[in-house]
Every structure is written in structure tokens, then in C-alpha cells.
Design goal:
single chain, 259 residues, alpha+beta, T-fold, eight-stranded antiparallel sheet, four-stranded antiparallel sheet, 12 strands
């Protein structure tokens, strides 16, 4: 078994941390670049793909990454760019898995595609100026998962709601990313938590979620055990080339994966 490493990659809007055995890192980097190229081609082809906040129907000859974004967004009732970070992470993880990776993750700015071969802890939220956070303890699963977040009060997420954080867990990161946005759009305050997950019950691929607003918490479906963890801002994936106020929010900490 080769050395397990973490590598950081920044390309324009993409800020990713890749965790895997060393020989799998290059495959993830190549997949991230390829996914970005396809998305950029689609934006050049139709600027509406970039700006719409509603489901989008791709052309029949659109690439697989674009179609995957559109499928996830349509299921959640949001625009395709709501799935962009998740789909890039998912493509990169799958590239590593195709080469034999059995334990690894790609954290694209807080939207994570992960395959758990041994237990890990993922920090998902901490209040500003707090030294602790709550986290998810993941056991070995043998399958890929998407764990993605959105916030209406902190960070760079586009949201019509005011949730402190929404975390969505799904069978893939594109679906989780779109669902985190969709659920977050429904959170207008603590009272709205009661039914924020309602429209998405039974959605294929949706495993579970957490929503927090005004100190209240809602949980849905199957979620890993919640634990308190020490917050370590140095391990949170943020974009060093962009203003901290836009990219380095304390609410987007899903990317802190600790083996």
C-alpha cells in the first residue's frame, strides 16, 4: 500500500483538497480539469446555463458532466450550477475509484465526494469565533457518498433562505449539492425547519440531511453519528486566491475530513 496523502488544487473558482493514496491523485486532477472544460464549453454555448436558477434541459449532444448536473438539479428543483461543485468532486472521486482507490475523498470547497475505507470524521459546521464544531463520524461504507452544504447566513452559497447551514447526504455529490441548495431555499427561520425536507422525501439517491437555523436543528433520513470536534480552520478547504469574505466562510466546513 502506498502513502496516503492530501493534495490541494486551485483552478479559478475551483478549490479542491484530494485525499487518497499517492498514485491516485493525478487521476483526480485530470478529472477535475476535464469536468471544468466541459462546463466552460456549455457556458460558452449557452450563457443561460450559468445564470438560471430553474431546472435546465441540456441539448442531446451535451456532455455527461453537464447532463449529470442537469439531472441532479431537476430532481431538486434548482438551477444546474447548484450542482457544479458536487459534480466536479464526484467526477474526480470516480476517476480514482476506477483505478482501485478504496479510501479517499475530494473536497471541492466544502462539497465532498467520499469513499470511506476506514472511519473518518467530517466537520460540518462551527459558529464564528468558536473553537469547537459539530461533525459527522463516518464508518466504512464500501460505496461513494456525497456530503454537501449550503448556507443562507454565512459563506458564498447562493440561497433564498436563511439557514445557518444545511447538510445533504446522498449517493453522489452532484445530488447532495443540489439538494443542499434546495433545502436551504426552504429555510426561512426556525419554524420552517419542520417541513424543510418534506418535498424531497423518497427522492432517489437522497440519504439524509441536517438543517440548522436560529439554534434549532432538523434531521431527516439516515445520517451518521453527530459528535463535537475541535475546529481547525487550517484543514478547511478554502480558496486562497479569492477574498476570504467570499470563499473562506466558517459555515462551509464540510471539507475537514480527518482519518
Amino acid at each position: 500500500m502506498s502513502e496516503f496523502v492530501t493534495a490541494k488544487l486551485e483552478i479559478e473558482e475551483t478549490a479542491a483538497t484530494i485525499g487518497a493514496e499517492r498514485e491516485h491523485i493525478d487521476a483526480a486532477v485530470t478529472a477535475i480539469k476535464a469536468a471544468r472544460r466541459e462546463i466552460e464549453r456549455q457556458v460558452r454555448r449557452d450563457r443561460f446555463f450559468l445564470t438560471t436558477l430553474e431546472p435546465y434541459s441540456p441539448e442531446p449532444d451535451s456532455g455527461s458532466v453537464v447532463r449529470r448536473m442537469c439531472d441532479a438539479a431537476r430532481a431538486a428543483g434548482v438551477g444546474p450550477m447548484a450542482a457544479v461543485a458536487g459534480v466536479i468532486a464526484q467526477e474526480a472521486l470516480e476517476a480514482m475509484v476506477s483505478l482501485g482507490c478504496t479510501h479517499g475523498w475530494v473536497d471541492n470547497g466544502g462539497d465532498v465526494a467520499i469513499l470511506v475505507g476506514r472511519p473518518v470524521t467530517i466537520e460540518v459546521f462551527h459558529m464564528p469565533d468558536s473553537g469547537s464544531a459539530f461533525a459527522l463520524e463516518l464508518e466504512k461504507t464500501g460505496r461513494t457518498l456525497g456530503i454537501c452544504s449550503s448556507s443562507g447566513t454565512l459563506g458564498h452559497s447562493i440561497s433564498f433562505g436563511n439557514a445557518d447551514v444545511v447538510v445533504a447526504i446522498a449517493e453522489d455529490a452532484a445530488t447532495a449539492d443540489a439538494l443542499a441548495t434546495a433545502v436551504g431555499n426552504r429555510v426561512s427561520g426556525p419554524a420552517s425547519l419542520e417541513d424543510c425536507f418534506g418535498p424531497f422525501e423518497g427522492l432517489p439517491g437522497f440519504i439524509g440531511g441536517i438543517a440548522i437555523a436560529g439554534g434549532k436543528v432538523a434531521m431527516h433520513g439516515r445520517i451518521p453519528r453527530l459528535v463535537e470536534a475541535e475546529h481547525n480552520p487550517e484543514r478547511v478547504t478554502s480558496h486562497s486566491m479569492m477574498p476570504a469574505s467570499k470563499f473562506a466562510s466558517s459555515s462551509k466546513n464540510v471539507g475537514e475530513v480527518r482519518s
